[in-house]
Amino acid sequence: MSNLPKVAIVMGSDSDFPKLVPCIQILKKFGVQTEVRIISAHRTPRDAEQFASSAAENGVGVIIAAAGKAAHLGGVIAAYTTLPVIGVPIKSSTMDGLDSLLSMVQMPKGIPVATVAIDGADNAGILAVQMLALGYPELTEKLVAFKRDMEEGVREKDRAIAQEVVKL
Ligand code: RP5
Predict the structure, then answer these.
(1) First to last CA, the chain
(2) Residue of the nearest CA to atom 10 in ligand 1?
(3) CA of 56 to the centre of ligand 1 (A)
(4) In angstroms, rounded to a whole number, what is the distance separating the alpha carbons of residues 68 and 15?
(5) Which residues line ligand 1 (CB under 6 A)?
């Protein structure tokens, strides 16, 4: 999968990083290369423009943008690229992340940001793999195996809970 595009993970602040670890782990599990950056839409807006407008030519296939509070990072990045942008609203100290969620999900028409759940970094990683898989069948095979493992995990829990109920 040497020519597989990278997934860029951009966060507004280093304080967002712990929430993004599951996303990086998922992408690694699928063998997808990542580029992880801290770029702020309001503190380093020129870097946001520079990064987004050159991402495609730098081998990026999907961009994941994570930010909290007035979370316009995904929207600003999406304005400067035709690559798909997935937004991860980060739960900040106030409003439980609803502020971040609405800032991302309520993008005006023309500039979509495919927003996952508040702190839903793992789903952002899976969605990015699904997007790349459209052009890379080897990723589809891995996604099929991933879903099969998940199914097996739930069935195992189903069997285990039946044992617990018997003991009641
Ligand atoms: C946003 O503001 C960042 O994405 C972060 O979630 C939030 C707080 O940033 P810091 O004040 O911790 O740098 O831009």
Answers:
(1) 51
(2) 13
(3) 26
(4) 10
(5) 12-13, 15-16, 40, 67-69, 90, 92
Residue 52's alpha-carbon distances to 48, 94, 133, in angstroms, are 6, 29, 22
Instruction: Read off the pLDDT of residues 2-18 as tens digits, 9 standing for 90 and up.
Output: 589 999 999 999 999 99
Question: How many C-beta atoms lie closer than 10 Å to residue 31's C-beta?
Answer: 12
Angle of helix 17-29 relative to helix 121-133, nearest 10 degrees, comes to 30
What is the pTM assigned to this prediction? 0.95
Distance from residue 6's CA to the centre of ligand 1 (Å): 25
Do residues 133 and 140 make contact, with C-beta atoms less than 8 angstroms apart?
Answer: yes
CA 147 to centroid of ligand 1, rounded, Å: 33
What sections of 3-71 are H helices per DSSP? 17-29, 45-54
User: Strand pairing of 60-68 and 85-90?
Assistant: parallel
Closest CA to 129 of 3, 7, 2, 1: 7
From 10, 11, 14, 16, the mutation candidate for ligand 1 (largest count of ligand atoms within 8 A of CB) is: 16
